[in-house]
Amino acid sequence: MISGTTKLIAHLGFPTHAFKAPLIYNPYFDKHGIDAVVVPMGCGAENYPDFLKLLFRLSNIHGALITMPHKITTMALLDEVSKSARVAGACNAVRLGADGRLIGDMFDGEGFVRGVLRRGREVRGRRAMMTGAGGVGSAIAASLAEAGLAELSLFDAHAPMMEGLADRLRRNYPDLSVITGSVDPSGYDIVVNATPLGMNESDPLPLDVARISTDAFVGEVVMKQEITPFLAAVRARGCEFQVGIDMLFEQIPAYLEFFDLPTTTADELRAVASI
Amino acid sequence: MISGTTKLIAHLGFPTHAFKAPLIYNPYFDKHGIDAVVVPMGCGAENYPDFLKLLFRLSNIHGALITMPHKITTMALLDEVSKSARVAGACNAVRLGADGRLIGDMFDGEGFVRGVLRRGREVRGRRAMMTGAGGVGSAIAASLAEAGLAELSLFDAHAPMMEGLADRLRRNYPDLSVITGSVDPSGYDIVVNATPLGMNESDPLPLDVARISTDAFVGEVVMKQEITPFLAAVRARGCEFQVGIDMLFEQIPAYLEFFDLPTTTADELRAVASI
Questions:
Q1: Residue A17 to residue B39, Cβ atoms within 8 A
Q2: Range(s) within chain A of domains with CATH label 3.40.50.10860
Q3: In this structure, are strands A127-131 and A93-96 parallel, antiparallel, or unpaired?
Q4: Which residue of chain A has the CA closest to B59?
Q5: Which parts of chain A sit beneath pLDDT 50?
Q6: Among candidates B27, B39, B59 on the partner chain, residue whose Cβ is nearest the Cβ of A42
Q7: Which pLDDT belongs to residue B224?
Q8: Cβ–Cβ of A40/B16 closer than 8 Å?
Q9: Do B4 and A14 touch (CB under 8 A)?
Q10: pLDDT in tens, B174-216
């Protein structure tokens, strides 16, 4: 029940019609009597910097979930950002710190990593291969690095994007070995599709599934359908995998901790969600 | 259930903790499956003009309820305001018109008048006495005039405020006879306390209840308690009356019509409200 004491969490992006977060957070808040609400606000890029600033001057603002097209531009609008956000070059969460400071973090990658760990798979000391060095790929790479990954083989058809991410990783995680330019998954413990390939029916597979080790763990970021063509091939090969939407549910506990709200498990969120 | 398609109605004011509107509108929207939500936003005066402008550029914004301390300043920020708002000199509702135009109206007075009419009392051709020519008094005077009142005897200890309202009424409603300077209710059909007297325990009564005709209808704007000391005296005298909160419930159907949402009665709103 929204009242004048309810903590307001804005969900900022455009367009809003496919927003899923309100359908997950709000039933969870309701169930546990947590006096907070996630409210979609469809803000265009041209108004976003000014709107974000004023939004965080509201007396009942508690935080913001940031989504397309604002994840990158948000970085320049904050007083403090986490290392993960810096490496990702993007931010999907903002909260108010002391003295009105705006603090940002990035949980897309954290959601991915929590999903891997929750299945009993290791990240620390392991080797991963990822294709796609855009926003979500950068976030996943940053979180894998933060979790102690030993080696990342990174590919993106857009070389400057690939090399830019590799540089940021090397600067921030000197212990991580970063290799670029190969899309061959053979021998890697973790294999990730972080490209949008799979959004359209005519898309090719993002990499050669036949070369993935059968004991590798495979991740997918495309959420258009639960089992994308890539995951169908991965399943046929017998690999363990997580679907795109897992990353969404797994990152919510991290958001709740960031917002200093009572947290829970991805499983409970899945159970209460209205999606 | 809030989603990315939900029509956002901002409730703008400061502070927010005593806001009642979300506790009335949202249960009503829920009950009827109306895809809209009222969300409190505690905006300070210094940020309000910029925030209002940007808020109405959100893709999912539908309207705003305006409360203290913004009702007067809103007037200068809109493209179009109703006659009632102009006479009241204040605005408590904003919606988006064609081409992004901001349209304002004022329903505090409309709520008062609807309450009078719903009890089978007449306004057209009748005579009213009102003390208090501030924001809410101005709104009630404007709506009584709009409803065809014949004569208004207006009092306010602050003479420029009293004369200012009298002037606005005479300019906009030339058929209404406006008298100023007397706080004597004798012989009037409708008697209204539109002063804040009654907010504090030590307040004197706003006028001499013993001089109200026993067949007059009496209205109160103070909402701090249902039966204020003034209304207790009015009840003891045997007059019919409406309490402050009636004005709140009675104006919501007018707001719903303004926002082009399915409307209802004050009674249904009272039944579903969580206050």
A1: no
A2: 7-106+247-272
A3: unpaired
A4: A42
A5: none
A6: B59
A7: 85
A8: no
A9: no
A10: 999 999 999 999 999 999 999 999 999 899 999 999 999 999 9
Using the Cβ of B100 and the Cβ atoms of chain A, whether some distance falls under 8 Å is answered with no
Contact criterion met (CB below 8 Å) for A8 and B40? yes
A7-106+247-272 has CATH 1.10.10.10 classification: no
Q: According to CATH, where is 3.40.50.720 located in chain A?
A: 109-242
ipTM above 0.85 for this complex: yes
**A163-202, pLDDT tens digit by residue?**
999 999 999 999 999 999 999 999 999 999 999 999 998 9
CATH numeric code, B109-242: 3.40.50.720
Calpha distance A213→B29 (Å, rounded): 53
* Relative orientation angle of helices B108-118 and B135-146, to the nearest 10 degrees: 50
Contact B54, B38 (CB under 8 A): no
Helix (H, G, I), strand (E, B) or coil at B64: strand
Q: How does pLDDT run across B138-184, given as a tens digit for each residue? A: 999 999 999 999 999 999 999 999 999 999 999 999 999 999 999 99
pTM of the model: 0.90
